[in-house]
Amino acid sequence: MTAAHQTLQRTNRRLADDVRSFTGSPRLAADLQRVLVDLIELHLQGKQAHWNVVGTNFRDLHLQLDELVDAARESSDTIAERMRAFDAVPDGRSDTIAATTSLPAFPAQEVNSADLVDLITTRTYAAIETIRDVHDAVDAEDPSTADLLHQIIDSLEKLAWMIKSENRKV
């Protein structure tokens, strides 16, 4: 054993050459890409809804949709930057989003506020379902990233609950 290794054992210091960054597996990258795509699509559909909602409670719903859009956009950025942190390459190009999202398509025309509530909460829950689908595999490889997924689920579920409450009858 070298003198450097003997000193290392006494101090618990690592040798610089032994330190490596975390590199995620192709599966981890693919799972997070699925999440990224659905979050970007949720952001885009939320904006489409925001611009084209009409009817009862327009202003409140219009503002709630901005909150959802902001949460989806910020969450997509968090996921993309996490991917870069472990050397994966996120793909947020529009053709990739359109070709690979799991969210149902959103109508192109004006949408009545009551119908819009159902449309946007369905899409929010679809994005959440994607996150839940990949969660266990992500957690097995990288618990830190799984923690980020928990935060995104919490945020989106809260927003979906608040939006769907617009149509709730007691």
Summary of the model, kept short:
With about 170 residues, the protein is an all-alpha fold. It is about 70% helix and about 0% strand. It is built from six helices and two strands.
How would you describe the overall organization of this protein?
This protein has 170 residues and is mainly alpha-helical. Helices cover 72% and strands 2% of the residues. It contains six helices and two strands, in the order ααβααβαα. Strands 1-2 form a two-stranded parallel ribbon.
Strand-residue proportion: under 5%
> Could you tell me how far the N terminus lies from the C terminus, measured between alpha carbons in angstroms?
75 Å
- Largest sheet geometry: 2 strands, parallel
Spatial shape: elongated
Tally of individual helices: 6
Please write the string of helix (H) and strand (E) elements: HHEHHEHH
Please outline the helices and strands:
Blueprint: H1 3-11, H2 26-52, E1 53-54, H3 58-85, H4 94-100, E2 111-112, H5 113-141, H6 143-164
